[in-house]
Specification:
By secondary structure, the protein is an alpha+beta fold. It has helices spanning 3-11, 18-30, 38-51, 55-66, 94-104, 123-128, 139-149, 162-172, 180-193, 214-230, 252-263, 270-285, 292-305, 307-318, 354-366, 405-418; strands at 82-86, 109-113, 151-155, 198-205, 235-241, 249-250, 337-342, 347-352, 380-382, 390-391, 396-402, 419-422, 432-437, 440-443. Bound molecules: uracil (URA).
């Protein structure tokens, strides 16, 4: 077997065997150039992007990537451990809300999260905006924290799914990210390697999602549920809307503030609703409740009593951060320039190019353009308007948090261009479109 034969087979649309898949995954994990050069892996990725993979090939690819490194052992943490993963969005900070709430309901959350990718934000970057907080812990510290505090959110160690790391970096720069088998195997290999007993997936759909059409998102959800089921783990995938940012705040410290406002009961709305929905399914998979409604009631009680916020505080303290941010959000990094912008016109918000909104935040310094870029945690924007809202000339449209007046000007122009305002009212898009389990799909909304 050699890499040229494998590339040729996939180029011709033929099915790869488990051994052939194992070969190139090993080459990616070990960087063994006698097995395959990067340009050959890239050619194979493009062949997969163009020819697709069968369900069997996608599962074999996932399991080979999972086994390319360590698989975390969470067995020293008592109880059913449930993980959650979002395919990525804008203003999508559900982890910071549901992880402490679920923990407050007695289900341990041992979560390994990622950094921002392209236009989407990352939980690790958001957490690092809290003064002093570290997302790097040894395995021993991580396990101890989950046993003692019930929740930890840290970065994934380099030894989990190293083949995905290599392949993802190549995909990122060769226009091969948007491939269903490659996305499904990339996400599920990391989730399976992270060692939880069950997984809730938040598959985004709409203008800010990796899969922008509903049918594409449902297909991705089904593929990931099938992989989890074949790997022996209960998986529920919930397809939720990303036609507009989920929360009102976009940017690292701003999203931490949004999460604290939700956990303090000061903010309601889409971010809270989706967090409760995902969290209720986590509680169900952990066997803590029989229905999502029952799970929601438990989470709402943790919200009302403040035990969710207390868990977040304990987690921040354990990870070296300043827990006082939970009582005083002004301790989070503050921007050099803050500018409130009015609508300046009348009409209805009809649509948003959410990817463009995410890119506007990235350009302000909230995300990386190059891998080595340092972030400015204070920047981003607050967008209180949502699709379907009526705007008057003096409606508060956006508050910009920027490094300079010039960057605020550029962001204002980009945000205005990304939001369509017109004379006819449109309906607010649903928050949730479908729930996929191993038993089938239920369409909602
Ligand atoms: N997130 C991942 O981890 N992998 C992908 O391929 C896409 C999104």
């Amino acid at each position: 077997m050699n890499i040229v034969e494998i590339i040729t087979k996939k180029k011709l649309g033929q099915e790869l065997s488990r051994e052939e898949i194992g070969y190139f995954v090993r080459a990616a994990a070990t960087h063994d150039r006698t097995m395959a050069e990067d340009y050959q892996l890239t050619a194979l990725l493009m062949a997969i992007r163009l020819q697709g993979m069968t369900a069997r090939e996608t599962t074999d690819l996932t399991l080979a990537m999972r086994d390319s490194g360590d698989v975390a052992d969470l067995s020293s943490i008592p109880g059913v451990k449930v993980d959650k993963h979002s395919t990525g969005g804008v203003g999508d900070t559900t982890t910071l809300i549901l992880a402490p709430l679920v923990a407050a309901c007695g289900v341990p959350v041992a979560k390994m999260s990622g950094r921002g990718l392209g236009h989407t934000g990352g939980t690790l970057d958001k957490l690092e905006s809290i003064p002093g907080l570290s997302v790097e812990e040894s395995e021993e510290q991580f396990l101890r924290q989950v046993r003692e505090v019930g929740v930890a959110v840290i970065g994934q160690t380099g030894s989990l799914a190293p083949a995905d790391k290599t392949l993802y970096a190549l995909r990122d720069v060769t226009s091969t990210v948007d491939s269903l088998p490659l996305i499904a195997s990339s996400i599920m290999s990391k989730k399976l390697a992270a060692g939880s007993d069950a997984i809730v997936l938040d598959v985004k759909t709409g203008s800010g999602a990796i899969m922008q059409t509903l049918e594409g998102s449902i297909e991705l959800a089904k593929a990931m549920v099938d992989i989890g089921t074949l790997a022996g783990k209960p998986v529920v995938a919930i397809v939720t809307g990303m036609e507009q940012p989920l929360g009102t705040h976009v940017g690292n410290a701003l999203e931490v503030k949004d999460a604290i406002d939700v956990l303090s009961g000061r903010t309601k709305g889409a971010l809270l609703e989706v967090s409760l929905l995902l969290g209720s399914h986590m509680l169900m998979l952990a066997g803590r409740c029989a229905t999502p409604e029952e799970g929601r009631a438990m989470l709402e009680s943790a919200l009302r009593t403040g035990s969710g916020l207390s868990r977040l505080k304990a987690m921040i303290e354990c990870q070296g951060g300043d827990p006082r941010v939970c009582d005083d959000v002004s301790l989070l990094p503050q921007p050099a320039v803050r500018r409130e912008v009015r609508a300046g016109c009348t009409g209805y918000v009809q649509a948003m190019d959410t990817m463009a909104l995410g890119l506007a935040a990235q350009a302000m310094g909230a995300g990386r353009i190059r891998k080595s870029d340092a972030l400015d945690y204070s920047v981003g924007f607050i967008l209180p308007v949502r699709i379907g809202d009526r705007l008057e000339e003096d409606t508060s449209f956006v508050t910009l948090c920027a490094r300079s007046e010039e960057e605020a000007d550029r962001a204002e122009a980009a945000i205005r261009a990304a939001i369509t305002i017109g004379p006819e009212q449109v309906a607010a898009p649903p928050l949730c479109y479908a729930i996929v389990t191993k038993d089938g799909m239920q369409r909602l909304g």
